[in-house]
TrEMBL record:
A Pfam match: DUF3016
Provenance organism: Sapientia aquatica
Signal sequence, start to end: 1-30
Biological classification of the source: Bacteria, Pseudomonadati, Pseudomonadota, Betaproteobacteria, Burkholderiales
UniProt entry tagged with the keyword Signal: yes
UniProtKB keywords: Signal
Protein name as annotated: DUF3016 domain-containing protein
InterPro entries: DUF3016
């Protein structure tokens, strides 16, 4: 009987520990983000070049979802960020190159990146902290090319830089709360 009580206590202690860890993990979560891609067929320029369009778009959206997710980690616990992308114009333009005429994205000075999205921050009680229509354009992206691209070799360095700079401005001006 004593062994049964000890086992029951051990099982209850283990269950309590697991529950506390689960609760702690929930409380320790950083801000979260939900990204919605609204009518991508109408976006200004997300052309794939030689790649399969559906595969390119899936990879593109996954990449940008990751960019927004990294930024959401800088938000306080319990804050939920809703982003609805309404337009995207990638830096550069898809054009034929070489003698084969293969299409590739070529980045030139006049082909600046731009993105439009709605941004909505909600607290843990689903009360709106901030809501805005955001339109970002970076006409000077080309002058920063070397600094933006650097050694990281990101897939969309110009667009990521532009979004990161905007997010940082929101937090520095206290429009967005900091962790």
């Amino acid at each position: 009987m004593n062994k049964l009580i000890n086992r029951t206590i051990q099982t209850l202690a283990a269950s309590a520990f697991i529950t506390l860890v689960a609760i702690g993990a929930t409380v320790a979560n950083a801000g979260e983000v939900t990204v919605t891609w609204q009518e991508p067929a109408k976006y200004t320029d997300i052309r794939a070049g030689e790649q399969n369009r559906e595969q390119f778009e899936a990879a593109l959206f996954k990449n940008f979802d990751g960019i927004f997710a990294e930024l959401a980690k800088k938000l306080p616990d319990g804050v939920h960020w809703q982003v609805t992308v309404t337009d995207l114009d990638l830096a550069g333009d898809v054009m034929p190159v070489g003698t084969t005429g293969r299409e590739m994205r070529i980045v030139k000075q006049n082909d600046r990146p731009a993105i439009s999205f709605t941004s909505k921050l909600l607290d843990a009680d689903n009360k709106v902290i901030n809501e805005a229509q955001v339109e970002l354009k970076d006409p000077n992206f080309f002058s920063r090319s070397a600094a933006i691209i650097g050694k990281d070799r990101k897939t969309y360095p110009y667009e990521e830089f532009m979004i990161n700079q905007w997010f940082e401005r929101q937090q520095n001006s206290l429009v967005f709360p900091k962790k």
